[in-house]
Write a structure and sequence with these properties.
The complex is a heterodimer of chains A (216) and B (653).
Chain A lengths: L4 E8 L7 H18 L2 H6 E8 L3 E9 L18 H15 L14 E6 L11 H11 L5 E7 L5 H5 L4 E5 L4 H16 L21 E2 L2
Parallel strand pairs in A: 1-2, 1-4, 4-5, 5-6
Antiparallel strand pairs in A: 2-3, 6-7
Helix pairs in contact in A: 1-6, 3-4
Chain B lengths: L18 H9 L3 H20 L22 H6 L14 H4 L8 H17 L3 H9 L13 H10 L11 H14 L3 H27 L37 E2 L4 E4 L11 E5 L7 E4 L4 E4 L5 E11 L8 E10 L2 H4 L16 E9 L3 E8 L2 H6 L5 E8 L4 E8 L7 H18 L3 H17 L3 H27 L14 E9 L2 E9 L3 E6 L3 E4 L24 H6 L1 E6 L4 E5 L1 H7 L3 H4 L2 H15 L6 H8 L11 E8 L5 H9 L1
Parallel strand pairs in B: 1-7
Antiparallel strand pairs in B: 2-5, 3-6, 4-5, 6-7, 8-9, 9-18, 10-11, 11-12, 12-13, 13-16, 14-15, 14-17, 17-18
The chains are: A alpha/beta (216), B alpha+beta (653).
Chain lengths: 216, 653
């Protein structure tokens, strides 16, 4: 069996994403898939899972090979809270369940990648972000090759995302151009996700396009 | 092009009814007229339930009366999601909770009864729900309709799905029983017409069955034709079509798409005409009612087709399309871009050494080639190797290195490591150290004790590895601020091989992944490396990692000694070869795996003929999905020892 490169995409679909932003995200995801499908190595190894969160956490697509992946409908409620911590916890348990570890008679997956996109603050971050720190610690134990946060638009809380991400990038606007740039960049990062690294080193990231800032 | 969710409108210019005005006009004619008019919809749902199907989206918006005031089956079966904003009021309460359940027959019964409630009372079902929640009687009693009907609605809209009527069939039967039980009113005003309606339906179904089912291109009966009525006044129900094909296709991979993945449900009597299968490399197989073929064009496409109603003049054709993703064939995507020759650390994309290391007792062949993933990006070959010979003693020295894909100057790291290590292994062989080593080798060969040799090897190989690391550190320091030792991360496999009398002494050391195997055809393989993989692919240890050589134990555990009488080959290889050929630790120790590997390799390499290096490079192009790393292989093949008996006879001659 081909070694899988598991990629988790966690999307904030709270009310503020309704309308143009979510439409732009959908277009961005579509071009990310198209771009990854042009990468022969990715086509043979990348497995994607798409998870959305608002007041609920929904695994829209469980870990599925890029070859078989089809983009589902993404619904956004009109309003409601953003339960980021709940969503991240769900990612931790998905990864725990999904990942194939190496054994003497079995080759393990590549280390998984996680991309989190949110446009606002966590409503379940706890006092002083304690809950975010907790879930951040759990994520760090989950063997991710890298965890990238995308702070979309001016209301996204970069400080919160730093608590659970290895890297945070920001998009000034939430239009099609910005999301297109972000997801294109994600596909480049994913394409370089299956390389030898040390036991703990992070996967190197490609340079950020102009519509996006690499904050850390 | 998106389809209209509605059935084609009748050609006559008469006004199209909305549900409210239609139902209100019926209500003015009395409750019996309401029940009668909704009966076709009840019957459709009952038939769905009979077939064990669930509608899941019943609300007034799916009840579209035509100009004659009769409901259209088309709209009902289509499950229109909008634009009827109040649709939510008709959803069963269990579907509205935060842990929304999937629709069931009972939730259909709720929705259908809610429609009946709306028609009967003129109120939104929300009012009934509120009263239910307070535990009150939900349907107001009125002299305008019989109390049994109010009770029936309460039963159909019960908050607990388990207390509801189980299926729409039960609901139809209850409604009819009610019709019969109201003397006078029923027989006078409606009974006859309800019976007529049912008879008409049965009649229509019979005729439809006799006429043959859903047809595609031919008049064959198809699995998907449901037996919906199609009497005059009803329109054929078009099948529903998914927006997107549930599974993707791949160029060059043959595929069969069954009809039920294209159209589902609908009434009989539609012909399907595909419009663009040929341009996708597909065709319709009329014998088996499916699409077959081998896709030719990658990308986002639509399968377009036309639905043509048979025997139904005046109903226009429907055009439909289904999105489908066709993946490219990965093999067609690989590019070969040259690496940048002006780069500071450039080295050739291919390298081989063969014929140069041809000695009386053995030959060494080596080859290293840039992997497909690096060719695709115009990146460098990160692998490297070095072969050396200490002429005075006959020690053959081999190094193989694999630069980390994640480190920017690892191509230079592997190059330095291999060169310096082989050079250091050779330089060590002099003076007292050489004498001690030679004595330890003699003891190992003659007396079978490796303890002494182990002690000598420890410092010999550890010294070479440490020297290689120092050289890399020095290189990193030459570019202050630009690079650290981590940017030169590389693995390192080392071997020293010497024939001593009738024996072979093989000494190895490994840091990182890849593999070393001492293979004896038909009998055994000895793995002469220490696995350095983590829980996940790509996790390994590098020569440059501080932990790799941190303790005496760590160093000793990486060293291996073998003293053997003969062998077929000693093979050192990077993970570009072990991953596809020996994918797990177990397979590297598996003789069967080695036999397959060696048969394949030696058939192509033809080790006994000149020009092995070029043939090794050719062999290394083998395809293996997901394995596109640089590949490096060094093979030491002993020359077949002349049999003593034969040499004596030659001498005599």
């Amino acid at each position: 069996m081909v070694r899988r490169l598991p990629v988790y995409i966690l999307l904030d679909t709270s009310g503020s994403m309704a309308g143009e932003p979510i439409e732009a995200v959908k277009v961005g995801l579509g071009s990310m898939l198209a771009s990854l499908r042009q990468d022969p190595h990715a086509l043979e190894s990348v497995h994607l899972s798409l998870i959305t969160f608002n007041a609920e956490v929904t695994t829209l697509v469980p870990l599925t090979s890029l070859e078989e992946f089809t983009l589902p409908e993404i619904m956004v409620p009109k309003s409601g809270p953003t339960l980021t911590v709940k969503a991240l916890r769900s990612v931790v348990s998905s990864v725990d369940r999904d990942l194939i570890r190496s054994l003497p008679e079995r080759k393990g997956d590549w280390r998984p990648l996680l991309f989190v996109m949110t446009d606002g603050a966590a409503n379940d971050g706890g006092g002083n972000g304690v809950a975010l720190d907790e879930v951040g610690a759990a994520l760090r134990q989950a063997h991710f090759g890298t965890i990238v946060g995308c702070a979309a638009g001016p209301k996204a809380r970069v400080d919160e995302m730093k608590r659970y991400c290895h890297h945070v990038v920001s998009l000034e606007t939430m239009d099609g151009y910005a999301f297109q740039g972000f997801f294109k960049w994600v596909s480049t990062a994913v394409s370089s996700g299956n390389v030898s690294v040390g036991m703990t080193a992070e996967i190197p990231l490609p340079p950020a396009p102009p519509e996006m800032h690499l904050i850390c | 092009m998106m389809d209209s969710p509605l059935n084609p409108k009748p050609a006559s210019p008469a006004p199209v009814w909305g549900f409210e005005e239609w139902i209100d006009s019926l209500a003015r004619e009395g409750w019996m007229r309401v029940v009668e008019s909704l009966l076709p919809a009840l019957e459709w749902l009952a038939e769905m339930h009979d077939r064990n199907e669930v509608h899941g989206g019943i609300h007034p918006g799916v009840l579209m009366p035509d100009t004659d005031g009769q409901l259209q089956a088309a709209a009902f079966t289509q499950r229109i999601a909008g634009p009827y904003l109040a649709a939510r009021a008709y959803l069963a309460p269990e579907l509205l909770s935060s842990r929304a359940e999937t629709p069931t027959k009972q939730s259909d019964v709720y929705s259908m009864t809610a429609v009946l409630y709306r028609a009967l009372t003129g109120q939104s079902p929300v009012a009934a729900q509120r009263r239910q929640e307070r535990g009150e009687v939900s349907v107001p009693r009125s002299p305008d309709y019989p109390e049994q009907l109010a009770r029936l609605i309460e039963l159909g809209m019960h908050l607990d799905p388990n207390c509801r009527l189980a299926t729409a069939r039960a609901l139809v039967e209850q409604v009819e029983a009610l019709r019969r039980s109201i003397p006078g009113v029923g027989s006078a005003a409606g009974s006859g017409s309800v019976e007529t309606c049912r008879e008409n339906l049965r009649d229509a179904i019979q005729r439809q069955r006799a006429a043959g089912g859903f047809s595609v291109g031919s008049n064959q009966e198809s699995a998907i034709g449901d037996q919906k009525q199609r009497k005059e006044g009803f329109r054929p129900v078009p099948p529903s079509t998914p927006k997107r094909l549930a599974s993707n296709l791949t160029v060059g991979r043959s595929v069969q798409i069954e009809l039920d993945r294209i159209v589902q449900g609908g009434s009989t009597g539609w012909e399907l005409e595909f419009l663009n299968l040929g341009s996708l490399g597909l065709e319709w197989d009329p014998e088996n009612n499916r699409i077959v073929g081998t896709p030719t064009v990658a990308g986002e496409h639509y399968v377009q087709f036309r639905l043509h109603p048979v025997d139904c003049s005046g109903v226009p054709d429907l055009e439909r399309q289904i999105a489908v993703t066709i993946n490219p064939d990965p093999d067609s995507l690989w590019r070969v871009l040259p690496s940048d020759q002006s780069d500071r650390f450039w080295k050739p994309d291919l390298d081989s050494d063969s014929g140069q290391y041809c000695f009386t007792e053995a030959e060494i062949h080596a080859a290293s080639r840039r992997g497909r993933s690096h060719e695709h990006e115009g990146l460098f070959r990160d692998d490297d190797f070095e072969v050396g010979r200490h002429d005075a003693t006959g020690w053959n020295l081999i190094a193989v290195g694999d630069g980390a894909g994640s480190a920017s100057y690892s191509r230079r790291g592997s190059q330095i490591a291999c060169r310096v290590a082989v050079e250091a292994l050779g330089r060590w062989l002099s003076g007292d150290r050489l004498n001690l080593l030679t004595e330890a080798v003699r003891i190992a060969v003659e007396m079978g004790s490796e303890k002494e040799l182990r002690g000598q090897v420890y410092s010999w190989f550890a010294g070479a590895a440490l020297e290689a690391r120092k050289a890399i550190a020095a290189e990193a320091e030459a570019f202050p601020g630009e690079a650290s030792i981590r940017d030169f991360a590389t693995t390192l496999l080392l071997a020293a091989v010497r024939q001593v009398g009738s024996k072979w002494v093989v000494i190895t050391m490994s840091i990182g992944d890849g593999g070393i195997g001492l293979y004896r055809a038909g009998s055994e393989v000895r793995v002469l490396c220490t696995p350095d993989s983590g829980e996940f692919s790509g996790q390994t240890v590098f020569l440059t990692s501080p932990a790799a050589l941190s303790t005496g134990e760590a160093i000793a555990s990486r060293q291996h000694i073998a003293v053997v009488s003969d062998f077929t080959a000693l093979v050192l290889m990077t993970d570009g070869i072990t991953d596809p050929k020996f994918p797990t630790e177990s397979s590297l120790a598996d003789l069967t795996c080695w036999e397959g590997f060696w048969l394949d390799l030696s058939a192509v390499a033809r080790f006994e003929e000149p020009g092995v290096g070029g043939r090794l490079l050719e062999w290394m192009r083998f395809r293996s999905p997901g394995n596109h790393d640089d590949r490096t292989l060094v093979v030491l093949v002993p020359k077949v020892p002349v049999q003593p008996a034969a040499s004596e006879s030659e001498a005599i001659q």
